[in-house]
Specification:
Trna Endonuclease, Chain: A, domain 1, three-stranded mixed beta sheet, 10 strands, globular
């Protein structure tokens, strides 16, 4: 991108509906100048303008600029294309990639006003969030992600040529079903270049199978003789990264299959921060596209017609229907995030007595520093728990509903009043915790010297059962493991409530377990 001008232009920006590359470039210069004035720290920008079909293709591949082939991406593309042509859905004005440089795809069908809006939103809002937020700094590698996508695409294509499309597809199907169980939540993954990744991949192919064979080298033994030391449990402690455990220890996987497991696992790690920061990320980008374009308008650079179109689109983005509205589908993350950043700025600039009681540390402080601190050091759950104010709770008219399985009726447990603010805030924050949205599944044991079965435990959250698709997911896990997979559900007392088994009778190749192979053993224990 060209260097940012030190001084603003004296001539107003273009105001037509159609755009040229020169006009888009000029808008980008002025937006970059204002972003620098507000001290937004971003990666270098790479702005690309693409067609609607290319945007649908990016939709289908999870927003990534390139990737390996899989039938699910084609299915998603066809569904998106049909809905778009029928007028049942629109397309995003942009897609932005967490990479260095930061890649932003803009729709060529956008008007000039929308191109300006999405440049401010994606290339400076999302971009600065990717670079600043602690989750992205800890868990992603923007310098290496594009190179790794190239490596993954080439490797999967080579596997399809060597082993057949169907064999590769079976492995990918299983890995995709388990992708959310392939994330390191506490151990920071090492950062490696493409050359280092390729060298390690070749080394893994040579050594990993030897290490696996050492675990499984013995035949099943008879029961322990008297006085013989009992076998040490394996794994020695529970493992929550199921795909990592499968990659390292599955007895039946070939080296190329383990590498595909690793590829899916690393891509799941890339998306891990985004699943926890949607409110913050979209709110931050929306706040800055609004602030930057408003600043350009106040400076006299933005024509009235451009500003009106931007405000019209912005208003639609942050619309929040009421709970009794037919269009209500939950809390709009754009609306909540934008409102919270605006509210933090208000608390810093014009605090009320209520604000000083609730937020003594930030009331009256510099709003730029406070916003930067909030963006860098929180995720959705902690951000809402820390910064959702009583004023915003009243504005959104938030209230709590208690849905207790032991009661036939719903209960309004808190409303937006003095006695309910904290409960409303804490309850809303918990809804954005991954523990509330994803099951807690851990590998707790492998029968190394017996039938080689794998045992997982499900620790229930507030008595919530697994979704009905759990059997399909466990089938896929058994496909990768190659032997019986056992799922134990734990109750609140820490005892086994029920056990489910998926048995794999044939052990050759990557056979899909049959649904009839499921054995259900419900051993409900008496509770005091």
């Amino acid at each position: 991108m060209p260097s940012v001008p030190a001084r603003r232009s004296t001539a107003p920006l273009p105001g037509g509906s159609e755009w040229t590359f020169e006009e888009v470039e000029r808008y980008d210069h002025e937006i970059a100048r204002v972003a620098e004035r507000y001290r937004l720290d971003t990666y270098p920008n790479q702005i690309e303008i693409i067609s609607a079909e290319q945007m649908m293709d990016a939709y289908a591949s999870n927003g990534l600029p390139l990737g390996y082939t899989h039938w699910s991406f084609g299915k998603r593309f066809l569904a998106t294309e049909q809905n778009y042509k029928r007028g049942q859905m629109g397309l995003a004005y942009e897609i932005v990639i967490n990479s260095n440089p930061c890649i932003a795809y803009l729709m060529e069908e956008n008007t000039l006003a929308m191109q300006a809006l999405v440049i401010a939103h994606a290339s400076y809002g999302h971009n600065s969030f990717f670079k600043g937020n602690y989750l992205f700094r800890t868990w992603t590698q923007p310098d290496a992600i594009i190179d790794y996508l190239v490596f993954a695409r080439r490797y999967v294509a080579e596997c399809e040529q060597r082993h057949g499309v169907m064999e590769v597809e079976r492995v990918l199907d299983a890995c995709h079903a388990l992708a959310n169980l392939g994330v390191d939540r506490y151990k920071r993954p090492p950062k490696r270049s493409l050359a280092e990744e390729q060298a390690l991949q070749q080394e893994r192919e040579q050594l990993l199978q030897i290490q696996v064979n050492q675990i499984w080298r013995t035949l099943p033994r008879r029961k322990q003789d008297a006085g013989q030391a009992p076998e040490r449990p394996f794994p020695p402690e529970p493992q929550e990264n199921v795909l990592y455990f499968v990659e390292k220890h599955a007895p039946m996987l070939e080296p190329w299959q383990r590498e595909i497991v690793r590829i899916v696992r690393k891509l799941a790690q890339y998306f891990y921060p985004q699943r926890q920061t949607q409110v913050m990320n979209e709110g931050w980008a929306t706040f800055w596209h609004y602030t930057i374009t408003q600043t350009l308008y106040d400076e006299g650079l933005l024509p009235d017609n451009i500003m009106l179109e931007i405000l019209h689109s912005h208003t639609n983005v942050i619309a929040q229907p009421g709970f009794d509205d037919k269009t209500f589908g939950g809390i709009n993350p754009y609306a909540l995030g934008f409102a919270m950043y605006r509210d933090i700025r208000r608390i810093c600039e014009s605090p009320t007595d209520e604000d000083r009681r609730w937020f003594p540390d930030i009331a009256g402080s510099d709003w730029r520093d406070t916003l930067r601190f909030a963006m860098r050091n929180f995720k959705d759950e902690s951000f809402i728990a820390q910064f959702l104010s009583p004023a915003l709770i009243r504005r959104f008219r938030l209230f709590c509903i208690t849905d207790d399985g032991h009661s036939e009726k719903l209960k309004v447990s808190a409303i937006h009043d003095e006695g309910g603010y904290r409960m409303v805030r804490d309850t809303l924050a918990r809804q954005y915790a991954l523990a509330e949205r994803e099951p807690d599944l851990q590998v707790v044991g492998v029968d190394v010297s017996g039938d080689r079965s794998l045992t997982l435990r499900h620790f229930r959250q507030e008595r919530r059962p697994l979704a009905q698709t759990y059997k399909d997911v466990m089938n896929y896990l058994a496909t990768l493991w190659g032997f019986t997979v056992r799922l134990q559900t734990m109750n609140e007392a820490g005892s086994i409530e029920s056990t489910h088994e998926c048995r794999v009778e044939k052990r050759a190749g990557m056979r899909q377990p049959d649904a009839a192979a499921w054995v259900l053993t419900d051993a409900f224990l008496h509770r005091d």
